[in-house]
Design brief:
β7, α9 and β8 form a beta-alpha-beta unit. Strands 5-4-1-6-7-8 form a six-stranded parallel sheet, with helices on both faces. The protein contains nine helices and eight strands. It has two domains: 140 residues, HAD superfamily/HAD-like (Rossmann fold); 66 residues.
Length: 219
Amino acid sequence: MKKEKKAVIFDLDGTLSDSIHSIKYCTDQAVAPFGYGPFSVEQYYYFVGDGAANLVKRALIAGGDTKLTHFEEAYTLYKGIFRENCMYQVRPYEGIRELLAALKERGIQIAVLSNKPHAETINVIESLFGEGYFDVIQGQMEDVAIKPSPEGALQILEKLHLGAEDILYLGDTATDMKTGKNTGAFTLGALWGFRERKELEEGGADALIAHPMELLQYV
């Protein structure tokens, strides 16, 4: 008999929010002064997922700056542009609001763990869903290792006073699948996000779902 879950930890970009256009808009602007880009949405699906620094590095490398000569300047530009534009064309995926409402109705806590900078993670979540809607919001912090390290997820568990067996972890990339497995959580792959089924399976997903409401069968 499966153990009833008490909380769900969500990835943000590509899982809760369709944010690819904000990521593209900000990164294209950050690398343009050095003669790179713009890049396609499809390229950005694979630039994202491992934090802002890696996002900028991948864009620069794709543009031809393989030695990352312009990284420090471009990264500084990106952080400033993203602070102002992190909500550019961002929206929740279809079915996300209904899923969150259903989880709350069942008394299941909800948390966010993102490799997006912490301040912007809070901004996006509160802009989309309202202040205080999520029980814990955690973005990238300087003193916490980024995903797929379980460090951030374990901090969330501590705040919720739960163990790994009490939660589901939902994300859309191999990085997320590895994060969930490293944490010891039952890990779901979101097929509506930025990556393909094959990547999620190879990343170690326990199950895959094609629509947010399908998560409810696992709690």
